[in-house]
């Protein structure tokens, strides 16, 4: 019987794959139409400048297991589990301030460990890797300007929960299976605390990281970032929220307390016995696949939960923690959503919209008002995918409070102040060694010499030229940036002659993107320009695609912030 065929773009944008009832195999594409040159042949990748780190030679072929029955989430009764609200982590104690003698800071301890998590009333418990025994992990709250330290402890089992591809860079069979390192996504931190992919720790080890929190209030998040394993470790459950608060945001009349709800979105595949299913290729020696889309949408670790709310306005702090899925969030009754913030904090003014689009790693700070919905059941959904049911109490609504017209001042960075413009291509190749897709940034592998070396305190424009058929969410560590514009270009002409021919006008960012960002959607066949000031620290950081399977297979590059001459 012919399996359902679903376009990859529809899967990315969160509707067709689940709505069409696509099978697991239909939801994972090893590689689609390969990137083509002028003659129509598959583009060959550039030669490698150095061997892989680690060894793949010692990896024996994986044994072929009998098929396991998949879980069919659509056959489960939705909205039977209450939405879990992750607990706010309490400090473990006080430690000396890292730079100021005589002062102390709050210190936290977070343990990575295996736990069993129940994702649905009618699904057996799932083995997951967690922070502090929960998925998502506990919420870490900090105040702007008040540094904290966190000891990240690896108490994971020695053997990995999911299938490792030892042919990937940094994933050699001679390395520890359960290595891990934590990156606080969106944090401005010294390089040694940033979660550099090669700074991993093995089970039994720990590392103390410093978080100065010298940044505006924002919804950040923390997740694993180990080289070659990030896609698996996050899929296994290593993720959580990190909220920075400040006095300016406190002064605004925004919903707070039990009317401020963090929502961590991710999608997974499960077997009928409740265990995680991470798909693999047909080659047991090279099981990596290009993308993973789940048919089970989780919100705070539950499959289609419900939350009880009162008539009135609620602030929803949303993180897209999926490996690949892009969400188009809307309310089932079409009511207006007010977006008040993005990755790096509040927008200048609220934006009224019907839908909010979030690629992996992007965040949205939104307000939904249920004042006129007493006694109703409304659903937050992405296209045809129901995510979360709001059960509005039969009670009198509190007096409506209008959102502030102005949330904060966002001074635009001027392109005239940029010291350089970097053109960085997003490239797709066919890897003949393993007969699979390979995607690179600027035609460079991870281990190639560093080519981006911004000077501390300077402003640069980075223009991403997307030659692939995919939308890539590109994330820069350390810095926040503003999106300047996007523009279509002639991909075929560029691939043939190297000549950049723009088509049409430059398009300004969407209103919900017109704030400080740290992740940007780079659409296929377009030039996307961002502008950033490289403030903070001197040292080595990374930039990468946040489609996790892409990042694991070379779509990640280091950059160095260097001191002024």
How does this model look, in words?
Helix content is 6%, strand content 36%. It is mainly beta and 565 residues long. Among the domains are: 74-250, Cupredoxins -  blue copper proteins (Immunoglobulin-like, Sandwich), CATH 2.60.40; 415-561, Sandwich (Immunoglobulin-like). The strands form six sheets. Strands 12-11-10-14-19-16-17 form a seven-stranded mixed β-sheet, with no helix packed on it. Strands 23-22-24-29-26-27 form a six-stranded mixed β-sheet, with no helix packed on it. Strands 1, 2, 3, 5 and 7 form a five-stranded mixed β-sheet that branches. The longest helix has 7 residues, at 230-236.
List the helices and strands and how they pair.
Blueprint: H1 8-12, H2 16-19, H3 24-27, E1 93-96, E2 104-117, E3 126-131, E4 140-143, E5 148-154, E6 182-185, E7 206-211, E8 218-224, H4 230-236, E9 239-245, H5 247-250, E10 260-268, E11 296-299, E12 302-303, E13 306-309, E14 313-320, E15 327-331, E16 337-342, E17 345-353, E18 356-358, E19 363-369, E20 377-382, E21 385-392, E22 418-431, E23 436-441, E24 459-466, E25 472-476, E26 481-489, H6 491-497, E27 502-507, E28 519-522, E29 526-533, E30 539-545, H7 548-552, E31 556-561
Parallel strand pairs: 2-5, 4-9, 10-14, 13-21, 22-24
Antiparallel strand pairs: 1-2, 2-3, 5-7, 6-8, 8-9, 10-11, 11-12, 14-19, 15-18, 15-20, 16-17, 16-19, 20-21, 22-23, 24-29, 25-28, 25-30, 26-27, 26-29, 30-31
